[in-house]
Amino acid sequence: MTNPTIRTTGLESATEDGNDMTPTTRKTLHQNIFSKLRPLPFQYHWTVWYEKYSESSNFEDRLYILHEDVADIATFYRVYNNYPWDKVKLRDTVHIFRKGVKPVWEDPENLKGGCWTFRVPKIKSQSFFHEVAILCMANELQAALEAEHDHVLGVSTSARFNSHLISVWNKSGSNMKSIKALEDTVIERLSPELRPTSSRSYFYKRHDEHEGFKEAVEARMKGKVEAEEAESVVRSDG
Fold first, then answer.
1. pTM for the full model?
2. With the C-alpha atoms ordered 46, 52, 56, 61, is the resulting torsion angle positive or negative?
3. Are 45 and 71 spatial neighbours (Cβ–Cβ below 8 Å)?
């Protein structure tokens, strides 16, 4: 198998004295990240999920795993480079989340969180998602939140008619310093041609501000109680 490659256009780097490097010595942000990560696993393991659009509030009805354990950059590119991105159906979503965290509001890690959502023109959406995913898995986004005691939990891309909604999820939806730091880091680290041209094209929203949040949480709690009761019956019968 050939080595995975980075397929993005890059940010211009600067020399230590602030002058631009020549084209022959310039490296992209993601090439630098890739070279650092090549011999090492990611700090966190990641799971790639596919979510089929459905009116159901039960994640079991709409989510399934594409790859359960993405532990390093090579594994990521084996999944990413071989996935038929052009076949993602309208309103379906692909998520890349920390292993053990489901990409649903009612997951315990997401209950008090929220996400930045960017409406990205279809022509730029794949490059945008690719760069944000690398920044997420390579811990570049998490590093910006360490001082605020927050966590980046995952990224998502959801297909729309002429755009994609690309989201970055964090754990603390009430930590304004963290939310601002995450916004600034995403904007600054994206390649210049991918950066939003207007602040109206993206927004932050807590999960509990969404219609259906309460019902989803209640359904999860009901399911948990029923599972515990069933387990208790099995134990007593044994």
1. 0.80
2. negative
3. yes
Angular region, 161: left φ>0, alpha ψ -120 to 50, beta rest: alpha
The model's pLDDT over 61-100, given as tens digits with 9 standing for 90+, comes to: 789 999 999 999 999 999 999 999 999 999 999 999 999 9
The fourth-level CATH superfamily of domain 31-237 is RNA Cap, Translation Initiation Factor Eif4e (3.30.760.10)
Alpha helices in the chain (DSSP H): 29-37, 73-80, 122-137, 140-145, 176-189, 213-237
Q: Is the pLDDT of residue 1 over 50?
A: no
Which helix (H) or strand (E) segment holds residue 115: the answer is strand 114-121
Show me where the domains of the chain are located: 31-237
Is the C-alpha dihedral spanning 95, 100, 102, 105 positive or negative? Answer: negative
The radius of gyration computed from the CA coordinates of the chain, to the nearest angstrom, equals: 19
What whole-number distance in Å separates Cα of residue 116 and Cα of residue 229? 38
Helix (H) or strand (E) holding 45: none
Question: What element of type H or E holds 159?
Answer: strand 152-159
Which uninterrupted H or E stretch holds 202? strand 202-206
Q: Tens digits of per-residue pLDDT, 183-220?
A: 999 999 999 999 999 999 999 999 999 998 998 888 88
φ, ψ of residue 126 to 5 degrees: the values are -70, -40
Per-residue DSSP letter, 24: T
Amino acid (one-letter) located at 212:
G
Q: In terms of DSSP bridges, do strands 63-70 and 114-121 run parallel, antiparallel, or are they unpaired?
A: unpaired
Picking from 134, 69, 78, 126, the residue whose alpha carbon sits closest to that of residue 98 is: 69
